[in-house]
Amino acid sequence: MEVDRDLRGNRIGKLLYYLSTVVLGYTLLGDSEQYENARRMYYSFSHNPGFTVDIIKLGYGILEKNVNLNDHNDERAWSTTPDKVGKLHRVVLKSVTMESKVIVEKLK
After folding, report:
1. Which helix (H) or strand (E) holds 93?
2. The predicted structure's pLDDT at residue 68
3. Residue of 48, 52, 42 lying closest to 73 (CA atoms)
């Protein structure tokens, strides 16, 4: 998903990610290249109890489940090392089920 340059900074991308996962029930798989703003969104969603972010390696499965990314350049998902650059590591964004959201709200 890419937002036109003149519309960036208005959180339209974040809204589209939210609608895709929560309303439509999709699981989003990150591309081989993630722009900084997309990385920031994955970082933000990873710290929101209504979402899970997993790090996978294509062809191998989940490397880390339900992670809280350290920042928008977290080396576990995005790196300049040859084993990760545009190759096999991806982030996956999912919405947590409504039952889980209710449990989280009760814990607060």
Report:
1. strand 89-95
2. 93
3. 42
